[in-house]
Amino acid sequence: MRDPLSVLTDAFTSFLFGKVETTRLPVRTSTGQAQAVYLPTAAPGLGDSGVIIGREVYSGKGYIYDPFQLYGQQLPAPHWLVLGESGNGKSALEKTYVLRQLRFRDRQVVVLDAQGEDGVGEWNLIAQELGITPIRLDPMAALDMGIRLNPLDPAITTTGQLALLRTIIEVAMGHGLDERSGFALKVAHAYVNETIVDRQPVLTDIVEQLRHPEPESAEAMNVAIDDVRAWGLDVALVLDRLVDGDLRGMFDGPTTVGIDLDAPLIVFDLSHIDRNSIAMPILMAIVGVWLEHTWIRPDRKKRIFLVEEAWHIINSPFVAQLFQRLLKFGRRLGLSFVAVVHHLSDVVDGAAAKEAAAILKMASTRTIYAQKADEARATGRVLGLPRWAVEIIPTLTPGIAVWDVNGNVQVVKHLVTETERPLVFTDRAMTESSADLEDDALRAAELEAEERAAAFVEHHLGDSESTVA
C-alpha cells in the first residue's frame, strides 16, 4: 500500500509534466548471460581491393591490404615496417605477400635476401618456383667471374656515382669525409670519367688516380701535388678494400651482363656476406643506389623493394640518408619500401637515430609480431601504438600480429594456403620454425585467439555479476 502523500505527489507531477516513466526493479545476472545486450561491433576494414593477408582476430573478417590501393586515400606513404622476434611468422608473411602481389601483372619486386642456409638464400625456393635465378653476391664466387655490380656503371649518373663513392668510404671509415678528402675524391672521379671512354670505368681507376693525382687538379686549387696525394690517401686505402681486400671481386669490374631487371621478381642473395661485418651496409648502399638508377623507371609499374635485416640500412647514417632519398624519390614512381627488423631498439638507439626516425616516419604501415614486454613498451612509445595493442604484443602467438595502418590498428591472423606452405615454411634451425611446427602453432593460435577475444570482452565488462536495469 503506497503512502497517500506519494500518490498525491505523483498525480500532481503527472498533471504538470506528463506521465512519469515506469520504474522497474533491477535484474541481477552474469556477464555471460548479459553479453547479448551489447551488440557485436568490429573496426572498419581497409577496403576490398588488394592482397588478402588473413583475417581480423576479434571480428573474423577478412583482412585485405595493398599500399598501392590505399595510397592517397588512407595512406600518406606506401612504405611498410615489419617488426618481431624470430619464429613468429615474419618470413612467412613477407613471402606470401610477395607471391600474392605478383599475381597482379603490373607488380615487380626486388628482395635483398640477407638470410640463408646450406649455401643459398631464404628466397631460393620461391625464385626456383618462378623460374628465376637469384643474383648471388659472393666475394669468393666473384673472383671466379661471379656477379659484379659496378659503382661506376654508366647507367648511374655522374652525381649518383660520386654520392655512392662517398657513402662507401664514409660507412667504412665510420665518419664523414672532410673537405680535403672529399676534394681529392671529386677530382679523381672527374678525371676518370673524362678520360676513360672506351670501357666502363672501375674502382681500380679511381684508386690509381688517388695515388697519382694529376698536376692540373692541384693547380686548380693552388695547392701542392703532394698535398692532394696526401688528402686522398685514406680514401684510396678504403676503396682498395673493394679492389684487393675481403670484398674484392664484387664491385671492381664492369657490371655483369645479363642481369634481368625486367623479371617480376629479382632476388639479391646476400647470404654469403657476414651480416655483422662492415661489408653488409656497404653492399646495401651499392645495391640501393644501383637499383635507383637502373631499376626504378617512370613506366607505371608498381614496385616493391623488400629488405631483410634492414637495420644495416637504418643504423648507418650515411646509408640511411641514401635510402631516405630513394624513398622520397620512389614514392612518386610507385615504389613501396618494406623494411624487416627484429627489434626497433636496433635502430632507434643507434648512431643513425635521426635518420632512422625519418625513415620510420615514412612507414605508414607497421606490423608488429610478438616481442618481450619491455621491447613492446618501447616499440609502442616510438610508434605511438594504443595501450591495448602494446599490452597484447607479448602474448601474440606465431602467425598473429598487430597491424597499424596509418592509425587503423587491428590484430590480424596471417593465413597461408596449402600451395604456399612448402615455399614459405622453410626448415630453419635458428631463424623460423619448420613447416610442421608452424602448422601446429598456427592451429593452436587460432583457438587461443578466440579464447583471448572472449577474455578481452570479459575484462572490459567485468568478471563479477552485473546489474542490468
UniProtKB/TrEMBL annotation:
InterPro entries: P-loop_NTPase, T4SS_component. This is Conjugal transfer ATPase TrbE. It comes from the Bacteria. Coiled coil: none annotated. It comes from Streptomyces chartreusis NRRL 3882.
